[in-house]
């Protein structure tokens, strides 16, 4: 057997033993997102031994890698061919892996311009609760009939099974990039973002906080030059801009560090046109107005009610009180679908139980 086969057999033995005893397992790579989600119970199954880039075809814009492959290794390989992971997955610390990035389903500033993690997952290899290795999707965009399981794994937090391998669609790096900033309040920023969002402008990132709106433009040099003339604003130094967008993606910006006693960081997903909320605390607005970060001591019901009134939902991202659900409760029909899927892939309920909802 090869080393990778030995690793797979070791994973299978652990999973089969856990299933036989109905003992929970924590599926974990670098552990940089272990705080995200609800309870973590059971022994840790460390995925980092199963690593390596399996295939990379720059001409076809597809990379396939094992779950324990460090994100840094993948981005380094892509950068050598002037390509990138379009959704800008946050690391949240050293050791982040591609399996963890897909399982968490979190994206950075570019998400509003290109799409979510699931939009770039072409295929996946999964080990289910019986120790069986299942293949879904492939390495092309149109290859799915029925449930698109490979994309469904994005954001599932390892509750359906051990993602062994993923194939990801990548994109070329932009030819040029620059960042502009504008002084304006939250209401004006949301209106301006929606105005610009309806125009053919090469916006690949937006962030407002502390009465300052920052916009990233990327693409062809001519398009960026025309957009800058049309939008105006103050040019941000390239080095400072790179540090800013990295801090927004990794949540090392001062905004995220300023949670006080009793405060929590909430992530609100709302229509981009929703007016800024007037909850106590402070906010940061991203994704053209569609993602609102809120640091507040307001009650969870108040925050979720505010998001619901705007046609969205709220996730308790960090620093919350014990017992407050992280994710917005699902309607009964959707919860039933989730439970049914869980029972198909993980009949003994061993994979990250309770990580998303108490029911699975």
Automatic annotation (TrEMBL):
Residues 1-173 form the FAD-binding PCMH-type domain. It comes from the Bacteria. It holds the Pfam family FAD_binding_4. InterPro entries: FAD-bd_PCMH, FAD-bd_PCMH-like_sf, FAD-bd_PCMH_sub2, FAD-linked_Oxase-like_C, Oxid_FAD_bind_N. Keywords: FAD, Flavoprotein, Oxidoreductase. GO terms for molecular function: FAD binding; glycolate dehydrogenase activity. Its EC number is 1.1.99.14. Gene3D superfamilies: 3.30.465.10. This is Glycolate oxidase. The lineage of its organism: Bacteria, Pseudomonadati, Pseudomonadota, Betaproteobacteria, Burkholderiales.
């Amino acid at each position: 057997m090869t080393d990778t086969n030995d690793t797979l057999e070791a994973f299978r033995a652990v999973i089969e033993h856990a299933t036989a005893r109905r003992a929970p397992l924590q599926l974990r790579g670098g552990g940089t997102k272990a705080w995200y989600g609800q309870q973590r119970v059971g022994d840790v199954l460390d995925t980092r031994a199963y690593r390596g880039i399996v295939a990379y075809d720059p001409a076809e814009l597809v990379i396939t890698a094992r779950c324990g492959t460090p994100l840094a290794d993948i981005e380094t390989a892509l950068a050598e061919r002037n390509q990138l992971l379009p959704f800008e997955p946050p690391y949240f610390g050293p050791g982040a892996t591609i399996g963890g990035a897909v399982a968490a389903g979190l994206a950075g500033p570019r998400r509003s311009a290109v799409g979510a993690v699931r939009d770039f997952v072409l295929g996946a290899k999964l080990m289910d609760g019986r120790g069986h290795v299942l293949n879904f999707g492939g390495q092309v965009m149109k290859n799915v009939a029925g449930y698109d399981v490979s994309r469904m794994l994005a954001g599932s937090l390892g509750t359906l099974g051990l993602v062994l391998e993923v194939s990801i669609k990548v994109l070329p790096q932009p030819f040029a990039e620059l960042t502009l900033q504008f002084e304006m309040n939250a209401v004006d920023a949301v209106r301006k973002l929606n105005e610009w969002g309806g125009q053919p402008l090469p916006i690949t990132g937006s962030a407002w906080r502390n009465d300052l709106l920052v916009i990233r433009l990327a693409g062809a040099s001519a398009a960026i030059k025309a957009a800058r003339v049309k939008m105006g604003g103050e040019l941000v130094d390239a080095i400072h801009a790179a540090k800013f967008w990295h801090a927004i993606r990794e949540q090392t910006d001062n905004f995220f560090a300023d949670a006080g006693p009793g405060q929590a960081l909430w992530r609100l997903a709302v229509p981009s046109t929703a007016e800024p909320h007037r909850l106590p605390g402070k906010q940061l607005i991203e994704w053209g107005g569609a993602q609102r970060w809120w640091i507040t001591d307001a009650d969870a019901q108040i925050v979720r009610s505010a998001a619901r009134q705007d046609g969205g939902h709220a996730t308790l991202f960090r620093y919350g009180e014990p017992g407050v659900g992280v994710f917005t409760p699902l309607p009964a029909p959707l919860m039933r679908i989730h439970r049914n899927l869980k029972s198909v892939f993980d009949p003994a309920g061993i994979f990250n139980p309770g990580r998303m909802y108490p029911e699975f």
